[in-house]
Amino acid sequence: MKLPSTTSRLLALQEATNAELRVRLNQIFQRYRSLAFAKRNDNLFTEHWTPEMAAAGYDFEGFEIKGANIVLHGVENACGFIYRISIAFPLELIDDASAIEAYFQQRYAESKASDLSAARSGCANPSV
Prior knowledge:
By secondary structure, the chain is α+β, with helices and mostly antiparallel strands. The protein has helices spanning 7-32, 43-48, 51-55, 97-121, and strands at residues 59-66, 69-78, 81-90. It has 4 helices and 3 strands; from the N terminus they run αααβββα.
């Protein structure tokens, strides 16, 4: 890769690269943000929300790389409060959309399986 010869052009390249990166990561966040709520099974939550409904108001805020994972952060401003969520996936999947899809589908299936096993054992949504 040939880098620009001036600092101002290098800064412009960085700005353009960051903008494109945010667009791509925003698409991933918007598609999979409901997984931040997938393991919620308390009564108050399940009576009023689905993971998709709960995540609908969250917008992509940024990302960070933590070890071998990339963590996507979202934020929602509601009723004077700021709420934050995060979803993460292995950084090695970043260039493969189908691998990202498979990873999040597996996580979603695992959360559903844990909900079913908890319901069978009587732990989910206990009667009051």
